[in-house]
Amino acid sequence: MIAALAFLLECAAVAAAVGVLASLLVAGVFLLPWGVPRSRPALRAEGAFVLGTLPAVVALAVVAAAAAPSLSAVLGWSRDHCGSHGHHLHLCILHSSGLRPVLAVVGALSLAVFSFRAGGLVWRVMRTRSRLAALEALGSWRPGLFPVVAVPGAPRLCHAAGVLHRRILISASLEGALAPLELRGALAHEEAHLRRRDPLAALLLSFAGLLVPPPLARVFLSAYQTAAEEACDAEAVLAVGDGTVVAGALVKMASLQRRASSVAGVPAFGQVALEQRVRQLLDAEVRPAVPSRALLFATGVGAGVLCVALLHAAVLHHAVETALHFFS
Amino acid sequence: MKKRTWEPLGTLEAAVMKVVWTQAHVTAREVCDRMTGRKERAYTTIMTTMDRLHRKGLLVREKDGLAWRYTPALSQPEFEKALADGIATDILQSHGEAALAAFVDAAAEVDESLLDRLAQLIAERRRGRR
């Protein structure tokens, strides 16, 4: 029992430490002058998604590789490895070194923070799901590749929602508030989000952010969202053929939300992003739409990192044990 | 004054309100009599539900002999609009992480002068093209 608890807390401490270190490195990479042109938002979104999920992927891969020899020995898949390095702490269920105070505290704290943040995120997702269901029950559905749900109320909703059951949610009153071409632009923007699977990507980034300090998690998510919004703006321009129409719709929508909303202002990426998006739309050339490969790239990178970690499991296991021994 | 926000109704509450909306000035007994088949409930259940709806502010009531006579405080479209506005406020706050993407980030601070400046910029660009 003590061995299993020590193993769990040590794994939690390793995941937290690797997550923090990897996110600091990734944050450094974010600050580098990459030279990706502003006119290629889809490419920036893909890069931001891969980098944003990387700390969590690396943390999980390191923990998996470090725990693999012990778990494999417990399951009888390999022989007991601990005899080969008896001079330091064992990250092992079979030959536990017992609960070391420093590791136990760090591990318990990491586990508690992770559980608290994960619980909060799951609660917010479930609450939003139930609110969406309640709102959709009041609305009328228009079929299509991505169904549009027109809901009653003030003109302020224009959202792409859903991971599997993808749909667009708009305030029915928007039809009177926006010109027909502007509304077409706004819907084209939301359709682009659904084609690119941005709601799923944002959800995955939020879960990946649980292994990262909250301020950095917000930076990674906001970098992805800003680039994704610009990519969808570009697709909306393609649909209506005029950047000023989409820019006009953006400004009108922001104005309508400001008037109708009692939402407390949060200094997010909105103000700068709105101005940036409008200026870009005014200068934009109509470019062909590029399908998003963010999820594909991230899956590839994740699988690659995990394979490399597991192929070097013995080395990583030993390195992690040495580091834990040194810090405890 | 703070605007009142409404929560979605439960199944029985919705069924009761449907009856009250179609026929105002009803007693719990009359609502109970109209709820037949799968919707049928005990009189006391209907009475308790209508009392709860009154406390929530959805029904107003006046004494009629020994019974209460209930009237809807809002019409069905008014209630649905107010409910939708309340839910929309919640949804606007949760933009980002909860599998939602918005055309405009409502949770951001955008001041009126910025909007005016951007609208002017767009108008100038349109004029410049002509």
TrEMBL record, chain A:
Q: Does the keyword Transmembrane apply?
A: yes
Q: Which residues cross the membrane?
A: 12-36, 48-68, 102-123, 295-320
Q: What is this protein called?
A: Peptidase M56 domain-containing protein
Which InterPro entries does the record associate with it?
Beta-lactam_resp_regulator, Peptidase_M56
- Domain named Peptidase M56: which ranges? 161-279
Keywords on record: Membrane, Transmembrane, Transmembrane helix
UniProtKB/TrEMBL annotation, chain B:
Q: Name one GO biological process term.
A: negative regulation of DNA-templated transcription
Q: Is the keyword Cell membrane assigned to this protein?
A: no
Residues making up the signal peptide according to the UniProt record? none
Pfam families from the xrefs? Answer: Penicillinase_R
UniProt GO molecular function:
DNA binding
Alphabetical keyword list:
DNA-binding, Transcription, Transcription regulation
| Highest taxon above the source species | Bacteria
Q: Which residues form a coiled coil?
A: none
Spell out the family assignment given in the record's similarity comment. Answer: Belongs to the BlaI transcriptional regulatory family.
The entry's protein name is BlaI/MecI/CopY family transcriptional regulator
Q: What is the lineage of its organism?
A: Bacteria, Pseudomonadati, Myxococcota, Myxococcia, Myxococcales
